[in-house]
């Protein structure tokens, strides 16, 4: 499991393109018949993809966890961004269509991932945060979760935000998770931009066409930088950094947070005119 250490906001100001990508971009996550994870020192978040094509993939253990099994002291949120798949958690089976979510709490030992059809495999995006309390396994279909429409075509940011794991939805210890889908003709996400000192965030971009890209903006509001991102890539956002993006075409992304609270609205917003 790859590790990424934390970066100070003052140091970040001197980074060039390659160093920004090295310290914040999570690429090469998609690997056939494998769980591929990255361990971040930001709130000890683990981010990864599980892509079963020809065989069942087990949620393994890793030396860095110093645990008897992956979820001994952790919780896990999973959203499928591919074809239909199945997750078996301690003997109970859950079928996930695209954009469905499964939450696994602290103490779940045996987790297996598979696809219904290897020619259209499931792609399970997963976020895991440390947990001090156990919450029950919970499934949420995309059609049934709370969703809100924001923005407008006039400002190229018409989008639907779907919340899965949050204080009024699936209960967790500290994980918050959902996804945003941009309407045709819209390219901007998370406008106006914001930070939140009490938790980090990860963005995972999907449904980005092969010849298209998302320009993800980060950094302090008066010291912004960018990363050019492709499909099925994720980016880490420290608590001091904004996190917004503009695509060359509409796309979707999963947002996930861990930190001090589960309040979706816990953020400090900045007017577009304040950005530099």
From TrEMBL:
Query: What SUPFAM superfamilies would the database entry show?
Result: RmlC-like cupins
State the reactions this protein catalyses. 5-dehydro-4-deoxy-D-glucuronate = 3-deoxy-D-glycero-2,5-hexodiulosonate
List positions binding Zn(2+). 194, 196, 201, 243
- Molecular function GO labels: 4-deoxy-L-threo-5-hexosulose-uronate ketol-isomerase activity
Q: How is the cofactor bound?
A: Binds 1 zinc ion per subunit.
Q: Which InterPro entries match?
A: KduI, KduI/IolB_isomerase, KduI_N, RmlC-like_jellyroll, RmlC_Cupin_sf
Recorded metabolic or biological pathway in which this protein acts = Glycan metabolism; pectin degradation; 2-dehydro-3-deoxy-D-gluconate from pectin: step 4/5
Enzyme class, top EC level, equals isomerase
Q: Which UniProt keywords apply?
A: Isomerase, Metal-binding, Zinc
Name the Enzyme Commission number(s) assigned to this protein: 5.3.1.17
Q: Does the keyword Isomerase apply?
A: yes
Which cofactors must be present for this protein to function? Zn(2+)
Family classification: Belongs to the KduI family.
So what does this one do? Catalyzes the isomerization of 5-dehydro-4-deoxy-D-glucuronate to 3-deoxy-D-glycero-2,5-hexodiulosonate.
Q: Which HAMAP family match?
A: KduI (MF_00687)
**Name recorded for this polypeptide:** 4-deoxy-L-threo-5-hexosulose-uronate ketol-isomerase
Which species is this record about?
Pedobacter helvus
């Amino acid at each position: 499991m790859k590790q990424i250490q934390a970066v100070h906001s003052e140091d970040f100001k001197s980074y060039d393109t390659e160093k920004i990508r090295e310290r914040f971009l999570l690429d090469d996550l998609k690997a056939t018949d494998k769980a591929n994870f990255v361990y971040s020192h930001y709130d000890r978040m683990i981010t990864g993809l599980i892509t079963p094509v020809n065989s069942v993939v087990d949620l393994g253990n890793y030396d860095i966890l110093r645990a008897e099994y992956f979820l001994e002291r952790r919780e896990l949120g999973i959203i499928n961004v591919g074809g239909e798949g199945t997750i078996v958690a301690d003997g109970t089976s859950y079928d996930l269509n695209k954009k469905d979510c499964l939450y696994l709490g602290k103490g779940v030992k045996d987790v297996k991932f598979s696809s219904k059809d290897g020619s259209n495999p499931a792609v399970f995006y997963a976020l895991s945060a440390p947990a001090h309390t156990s919450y029950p396994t919970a499934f949420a279909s995309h059609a049934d979760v709370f969703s809100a429409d924001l923005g407008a075509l006039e400002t190229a940011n018409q989008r639907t935000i779907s919340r899965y794991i949050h204080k009024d939805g699936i209960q967790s210890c500290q994980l918050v998770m959902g996804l945003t889908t941009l309407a045709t003709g819209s390219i901007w996400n998370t406008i106006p931009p914001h930070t939140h000192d009490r938790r980090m965030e990860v963005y995972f971009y999907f449904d980005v066409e092969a010849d298209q890209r998302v320009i993800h903006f980060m950094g302090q509001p008066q010291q912004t930088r960018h990363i050019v991102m492709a499909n099925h890539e994720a980016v880490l956002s420290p608590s001091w950094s904004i996190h917004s993006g503009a695509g060359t075409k509409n796309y979707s992304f999963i947002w996930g947070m861990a930190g001090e609270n589960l309040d979706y609205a816990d953020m400090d917003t900045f007017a577009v005119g304040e950005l530099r």
